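Good day; I would like, with your permission, to put a structural problem before you. A protein sequence and the structure tokens that stand for its backbone fold form the material at issue. The record follows directly beneath this note:
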Amino acid sequence: MPVSTTPGTQWGTWINLQGGIFAEPAPVLTADNRVQVFVQGGSNTLYSRTENRDRSWGGWVQHQGSAVAGVPSAVRGKDGKIRVFYRTPDNHLEVITQTAINSAYGAPARIVTNIGGDPAAALNADGRIQVFFRGTDGALWHVRNQGVQYEAYTGAVSLGGGIFATPSPVLDGSGRLVVAVKGGGDTLYTIQQAAANSWDSWESWHHETSGVTTRPTAVVDAAARAQIFYRGSDGAAWRVGQTPNYDSFETSVSLGGGIIDRPTAALGQDGRLNVLAKGTDKALWVAVQKTENETPYSAWESLGGEIGDAHVSPVIANHEGLLFAFTQGSGTTRHLFLQRQTWA
């Protein structure tokens, strides 16, 4: 059976980008619409590869001075420059920033000392970058740009709570950031800005569901409603969707399947969400929303491959709306592999 996907596209063959990676890759779209992916290489080095205009790939680039332990988070700011946030081996939060649009990166800058987990970055409605992370006290903390001075960051501020995995922030259709976290006892909690672009004003924590065994993935659907995906205690993929008024979440719904790691997702060209996950056979599997903004999903279908120990990357759409997913291959080589949509 052909894999269900956005009409007019199909999933291609696996592409081996070589290298040796030790954590989940972090893809981002450059200002000139090329996909760039960052990884933790051997000896805690930060590397990247960038797509060429002819869809081939440039060579590996090591970002000198950057020592990373875990999963980096890459985001393109409103000024067009990419910033890559990461946790250092001695547990500090650092960032490297492009020196100009579509250019190389400058030296790392330390933002926060002593953090308790990997960072996750997202844009405010006004384009300011907010970076969320687990503190050494187990609470959710964040920093942001100071005004529109994209190179300056505030001090870290606690949002409280107790989190047990990297947070997942997303900007919803109301212009407010929603952060989904895995809480104690395999629970899912969310916290939301009280108003668009607010810094100090956040609503109270809200318990959404239980039986959550992985870090959640937060994305938005075609209606810009937050959709949160996670692996349930039954080994299936589950989804919690935001209500139409963007103020709360509905009851969790199972997508079925048998998955090992957290699912990740992105919008296809036709406005349907595509959900990808590592199956129990270590292959990459996909389930697709049957109708834009609706609850039912297709049955899971295999994209093949054999995934290693690292998680599948967040799914990213290129400038044509074609979806890209990066992962670690199996075996001791730990190569970076790419699965992407192509034109049918």
Summary: The chain is about 0% helix and 45% strand. The mean pLDDT is 96.
